[in-house]
Write a structure and sequence with these properties.
The structure holds 2 protein chains of 2 kinds.
Chain A lengths: L7 E5 L3 H12 L5 E6 L14 H4 L12 H6 L2 E5 L3 E5 L4 E4 L4 E3 L2 E4 L3 E3 L13 E3 L3 H13 L4 E5 L3 H12 L3 E5 L12 H13 L3 E3 L4 E7 L2 E6 L4 E4 L1 E4 L3 E3 L2 H5 L8 E2 L11 E3 L4 E5 L4 E3 L4 H15 L11 E6 L2 E7 L6 E6 L6 E7 L2 E8 L2 H12 L6 H5 L7 H4 L3
Parallel strand pairs in A: 1-2, 1-7, 2-3, 7-19, 9-16, 10-11, 10-16, 11-12, 18-20
Antiparallel strand pairs in A: 4-5, 5-6, 8-17, 13-14, 14-15, 20-21, 22-23, 23-26, 24-25, 25-26
Helix pairs in contact in A: 1-8
Chain B lengths: L1 E6 L5 E6 L4 H7 L19 E4 L4 H4 L4 H7 L9 E3 L13 E4 L2
Parallel strand pairs in B: 1-5
Antiparallel strand pairs in B: 1-2, 3-4, 3-5
The chains are: A alpha/beta, B alpha+beta.
Bound molecules: flavin-adenine dinucleotide and FE2/S2 (inorganic) cluster.
């Protein structure tokens, strides 16, 4: 694109959102410079495997890259790693790096994602071997520590997807794992009770103890190990502690420069902030989902990748709109969970069990509208759920609950 | 060692060599257009869809059940479709030609 030849697009954050945006800019014909900055020193990698296959395998990070080093060169993407961006100056259209270097932008993409919350539990700062799980460095630390431990009691604080996946992976490596969840059930925020029950049982069967209603209120060091105490008086020995209680959005750069921030960085359907030259994509963005007609902040690869396409197209002068159905997956033990849609606001749940006894799916409805599907070892249910939601088709609930009805559009559609 | 040829939707042919790993990883490593591998190779995203040449389909084998289900997301999928993250490279794949779906 001739007009962009002399322009510079700067991207802060080189992970799923930022990296895909850079490559999509080239696909859309951006002819100017692309400069990316990330505080993480490693060539950008896939995050989902960190708590799954990557944690248990001996593969190096090179097997887990978003793009090869050559790909950045070939597309003339100037990737600056191990470099933190300190501020955005909108008046001069510049960013300032931690070493005070100033870089000018014509278009700026904020893809700063999120960082793990470390809850302010008394003693957590001095406790032994406490790790979150968000970066490759976290995984290296966990692996190295794990190998050095003679006693391998691990406490995972938080029964969300990352906590559960990490528990499953560490169990596979031979640890004794206990999950402490504050709420009455695991995955409380994101699934129906029967899904929580299923995963609770799955972990039980695999020898991981899942304890709910456990509010951790102190950690004490004892003999090079920790004692984790809960408000109900229970105590757990922990040679290593994994913290998986959620994330903080990396919104400070945007906030300090006067960009509108709500639950994340507020963007329009083109992923543009209130500054027309500044975009925000991925985990850090707070955006409107047209299908569900509400504002959301999503933590998923799907959202990061799809928003990166919209931002790239918009920066190159097109007017795409962000209109997707969210999807997500989680792998624990040999169980594959695939989710599509947003279940929040449901008032009816239908469980469909397949004849094989191993796969089932949970369909979330608000009255007659299908909102979301959670599919366990059941890609077919995931795919058909996607089609039903996308096209706002009505499901014949009676037929759906009968596993003898074949999973086919024509069979399950209410006519 | 296997030589694998990718043909992208705009007709670009690239032949690359590998000994192991998945075809999706090989494609990403070589920046093959249209193979994104967004889920990192766990059969969750269907962004690694390729068409195998009919004469090669015996060599690669056909799509597994989960691949077939995921491929339903793509209206263009056919009996020669595979998710390339599920194709493990070994010598037997030497010489195959894959048409990138997207
Ligand atoms: C362990 C784990 C498992 C997951 N599993 C799944 C899954 O199964 N399926 C799924 O869909 N999603 C999963 N996710 C979520 C998914 O990885 C995220 O949604 C995705 O990484 C978001 O990408 P992003 O680019 O928006 O943000 P991030 O991946 O958070 O990247 C933001 C980047 O910005 C950089 N950065 C921030 N501030 C600055 C600054 N000031 N200067 C320089 N650099 C900065 C950070 O270093 C970071 O690299 C998982 C996440 C984790 C951590
Ligand atoms: S890489 Fe996601 S399905 Fe193959």
């Amino acid at each position: 694109m001739e007009v962009t030849k002399t322009k510079t697009c700067v991207i802060i954050g080189a992970s799923h959102a930022g990296v895909n945006c850079a490559f999509n800019l080239r696909k859309e014909g951006w002819g100017g410079a692309i400069k990316m900055y990330d505080a993480d020193p490693y060539l950008p990698y896939h995050r989902p495997p960190l708590s799954k296959a990557y944690l248990t395998s001996d593969d190096g990070l090179d097997k887990n890259l978003l793009k090869s080093a050559e790909a950045y060169e070939k597309e003339e993407i100037d990737l600056n790693l191990g470099v933190k961006v300190n501020s955005i100056n909108r008046e001069n259209q510049t960013i300032v790096l931690e070493d005070d270097t100033v870089t000018k932008y014509d278009k700026l993409v904020i893809a700063t994602g999120a960082r793990p919350i470390i809850p302010p539990i008394p003693g957590i700062d001095t406790a032994k071997h406490v790790f979150p799980l968000r970066t490759a460095t976290d995984v290296t630390n966990i692996k190295e520590t794990f190998q050095s431990l003679t006693s391998k009691n691990i406490v995972v604080i938080g029964g969300g997807y990352i906590g559960l996946e990490t528990a499953a992976s560490l169990k596979k490596l031979g640890a004794d794992v206990t999950i402490l969840e504050r709420e009455a059930r695991i995955l409380q925020r994101v699934t129906a009770p029967l899904m929580s029950d299923y995963f609770n049982q799955l972990h039980d069967e695999n020898g991981v103890s899942v304890l709910t209603g456990k509010n951790v209120n102190a950690i004490q060091v004892e003999d090079n190990s920790n004692i984790v105490s809960c408000s109900d008086g229970s105590e757990f020995k922990a040679d290593m502690i994994i913290v998986g209680v959620g994330i903080f959005v990396n919104k400070e750069l945007a906030e300090a420069s006067g960009i509108v921030v709500k639950n994340g960085i507020l963007v329009n359907a083109q992923t543009q902030t209130n500054d027309e030259n500044i975009y925000a994509i991925g985990d850090c963005s707070f955006h409107h989902n047209p299908h569900f007609d509400r504002y959301v902040r999503l933590e998923s690869v799907q959202n990061a990748v799809d928003q990166s396409k919209v931002a790239a197209a918009s920066i190159c002068g097109n007017t795409p709109t962000y209109d997707t159905i969210p999807w997500f997956w989680s792998d624990q033990y040999d169980v594959k969970l695939q989710m599509v849609g947003l279940s929040e606001g449901y008032n009816e749940v239908i469980k469909r069990e397949e004849a094989d006894g191993k796969s089932f799916s949970v369909w979330y409805f608000k009255d007659d509208e299908l909102l979301a599907v959670d599919a366990v070892n059941n890609a077919k249910a995931y795919v058909f759920g996607t089609k039903f939601i996308k096209d706002s088709l009505q499901v014949d609930k009676v037929k759906l609950s009968n596993s003898d009805t074949p999973m086919k559009l024509g069979e399950l559609k209410l006519v | 060692m296997a030589k694998i040829t990718f043909v992208t939707s705009d007709g670009e042919r690239t032949t690359v060599e590998a000994e192991s790993g998945t075809v999706m990883a090989l494609a990403v490593e070589n920046n093959i257009k249209g193979i994104d591998g967004d889920c990192g190779g766990v059969c969750s995203c269907a962004t690694c869809h390729v068409f195998v040449e009919p004469e090669d389909i015996e060599t690669t084998g056909r799509a597994s059940d989960i691949e077939e289900d995921m491929l339903e997301l793509d209206d263009n999928a056919n009996e020669y479709s595979r998710l390339s993250c599920q194709l493990e490279i070994d010598d037997s794949l030497d010489g195959i030609v894959l048409q990138v779906a997207k």
